[in-house]
Structures are given as C-alpha cells and as structure tokens.
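Narrative of activities, Objective 1.

The group set out to show that a structural description can be obtained from nothing but a protein's sequence at a throughput compatible with the screening campaign. Below is one input-output pair from the validation batch, recorded exactly as produced.
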Amino acid sequence: MFRNIGKRIMKTRYTLFVLGVALLLIASCNREDISITYFKQLQSTSDNTNKEDSLMMPCGFIEYDSVRFSDGSYAVHRLQYAPQNSLTEFFDNKGRTIATVARASECYAQTLVYDYDDEGRLSHLLQYKSEIFEGLDSDSTSYGRNKEGYLGFRQMIADMDYEHPDTTKYQQTNIEYDKDGDAVKSYIVYGSDSIVALSGYKLAIAVKPCLSFWQSDLHGGFYIFHVKMEPKRKDLPNYKVCRFADYLPSMESEYRNGRIVKTVWHHDPCIESDDKDLVFIPIITDELNVYSGTWEDGSKHQRVYKDGLLAYKQEISKYGTVLKKETYSFPSNNKVKVIYETIDYKTKTLKTQSTSVMDVPNMEMYHENMNVDSGDYRWENYYNK
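Output recorded for this entry:
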C-alpha cells in the first residue's frame, strides 16, 4: 500500500514538474523580445556642421532623440533650450502613449507608464517613486539615454505585470468600466485614494501635461491625472460636476435647470495647506447675470453678462470700491470694443485708461460662460481658463 502511495506521489510530482515546464515554455513564447530598428540622436552645439542639428535651435530644442522598435512602437526625447525642461515619450504601434518621462530642469523626473484594455481605454497608470530613466539621481536611474537604455526601458514596459504590481517601486492606478463602457471607478492599488462615480454618473479620465510644462523650471515638467465626474445623461435639469487633480478634489459645481447656481474651488493643499475654499455664486436677474467670487481678503471678481454676452468684468475691493473695470460692446458680429477703466484714488471714481476695437474670429469666448473652469481662480497650472 505504501509503495503504491509512493508511486502516486512520484507520479504527481512528475506531472507538476511537466506542467511547470510547459507553463514556463508558454510564458517564454508569449514574451515578446523587442529590438531597436532605428536610433538617431541630435544635439545642438555652437559649432554644428550637421544640417539636421542646426535646425534644432530654431525649434527651441538642444537635444532630440528618435527611436523605433521592432514591434512598431517608438520613442521621442526632447530637451528644450530654456528652461531646460525635457520630455521623453514612448508610443505603441497604434500611436498611443505608453510612457512619459517628464522633467523640469530643477526637479526630479516624473515617470509614468500607461496601459490600455482590449477596447483601447486607459486601464492602468503607473507612477514611479524614483527616477529610473535619465534623471538627476544617478543612484536610482536604471536606464540611460542610449540604445541599451531605450531598449531596456521599452522591454520593461512590455514585461509589466499589472496583476501583481510592485508597489515598492511604483504607485499603480486601476480604472474600472461599467457595461456601458463608462469609467466608474479609479483607485490606487493598496492605497487609500479612490474616486467612485455616483449612481447615474461617469468619470471622464485624462492624463495631461501641466500648463507651464515648458515655461517653468520649477513648476513645469509634469503630468496630471485628471478626473471629471459628470452625469451620464445630458438632459438632466439638476446635477453637479466634480473635478479632481491627482485624486485631490479641485472643483465642484451645482446646476439647477441647466444653470450654475454654485461653484466651489477647493484649495490646493500642496500650495497652501490652511487655505480656504473659494465659493462662487451667480446672481441671475431679468437683465444681468452676475458671476461673483470672493477672495480670502474679502475682495471680489465679477463677470457680468447681458443677453448671453459679456457686458463687463470688474475687480472690487473688500470695502466695495470698484478698482478696475472692463466694459464690452459688440459693434458687429466679428468685432468687440473694450473700455478699460481704473480707480482714481483722488476723485474715487473710475477713469478711462484706454479703448480698443478688435476683430474677433471666435465670438464663443464672449458668450455667457457656463464653463466651471473659467477665471483665474485656483489650480492655475492645472486647467485652461
């Protein structure tokens, strides 16, 4: 009996061994080994004799790499002249971004890796906790800006295991979709940050560069994980829209009968941890619609619309005195007249400083602005105003 048991154990072990070998063979067959098929690096110097190199400085770049891989994917690296911010982008054979290495000249690099599901939707986003590609910190950098570095980084992306993330090296965001194909949940694996859409709502998700990406050597050179929660239906009379930046709540607007009744710009805790939220409440009258926001010091900014078009904008002190005013009129469909006034402290009245008449190729910018991002209020490096 024991002999039979021993035989069965041996047979079981042999079977498991064969299965293990088979799985390893399958895994090795499925693994795609990538090679470089094209590699070109251009560098702008004062004594360039290369015609290609000499064209770079007028474009504002002093380094430009172009790399193609055997699977049809490719990479591009750009280093700007001033400030010396840089961006290295990897794309798959469909032109989708699969990695970005972004850096402001005075900051450490931000490394992101993107993954898509079978429907082409963003499903995973990785952010590395240290520099791994051509950064300031040579101790943590695994891949240099050379053939071996580009190939190693590209192979790392291809071999990434999103089911078993190495959270000691990076932070992984997972995005879930419902049966309608709408994103409804975004969360950090093994973390506390998450955004879940309310019932009847969906998440619009995008990863975009900050507005000062190429302009600032301190506040530029990074990407933002944007999430907007909005209703699935477009015909709801009452609803709200919420925006998040890197999982931080940035804005929330309430609509009643299709109009904004309240907008809250949350403070950016990364800049002012004890700052207060800004609340904007529109005042709707028979003739004028006034969108008023109050700053921390009690001063106000107002946008006033008449018949759906911008009538004037003004800055008001905490004491109720109008300090600046811009009055708008529209002589024709493609022209706008603006009168600029500022306070004369001697007479305590507004005095005209200048008047201008301009051609307007797009009148939309003067239509009543229901865009909750409008106005230079908060998160100015995150949203177009």
